[in-house]
Amino acid sequence: xxxxxxxxxxxxxxxxxxxxxxxxxxxxxxxxxxxxxxxxxxxxxxxxxxxxxxxxxxxxxxxxxxxxxxxxxxxxxxxxxxxxxxxxxxxxxxxxxxxxxxxxxxxxxxxxxxxxxxxxxxxxxxxxx
Length: 129
Description:
Strand order of the largest sheet: 2-3-8-4-7-6
Oligomer: single chain
């Protein structure tokens, strides 16, 4: 299980470890953003610091409706007890945790100052016949 808390802004935040290809690691505080369909955004400075490999350029639709081109990188993220390889979108905001990383998990937020944020893996569902 991944746990975090609601800060005073109020944003649901969790701490994650992001690892670069040479094993360098940085702990970040990411804001849970259910409006973001990708996995994770990081500022370009942190992407450079971790030497995350560039993968491609991609179009991104911003919350204000504008479209922009962003660089996509790749990193390993400590996600609960697992290490997951995820796409990282370069964005000049603080780190955002999106729906692609949350897929297959339950998100619970106690929306109050200092409220608990918990992310737990859903039980597998039986295959339909």
